[in-house]
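Our consortium's second objective concerns turning raw sequence data into structural hypotheses that experimental partners can test. To show how far this objective has progressed, the report includes one record in full. It was chosen at random from the queue rather than selected for favorable results. The single chain below, 102 residues long, was entered without modification.
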Amino acid sequence: MYLSNAFSLNMIPADAEELTVHIERIEPDDVPPDAESVIGHSDTARVVSNILGRDVPANRISITVSPGDVLYAAQYCGPRLPAGATELPDDATITFYRVTIQ
């Protein structure tokens, strides 16, 4: 299980011939506390930490997903976060999704 700020087709293995990706909008409380953070930007990680009420470290790594993997995406929409942000700007949102790979 991963916690990311986005889902990208670059996360799919190059040799994958067919995968099914199921995307479901969820509430922040649905993100398991043991999902490994792969959020690459520290400002985004701090904002997600504040929303989830727990520490979400920045962890800038590339991942490849396989059947059976679940990625929780905290999709940010809005202007560039100001340096050191811990809360969303007034004109921004984060929507959470569960991305299941089959």
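The partners drew two points from this record. The beta strands are 2-4, 21-26, 36-37, 70-77, 93-101. The chain has a mean pLDDT of 94. Both points have been shared with the crystallography group to help prioritize constructs.
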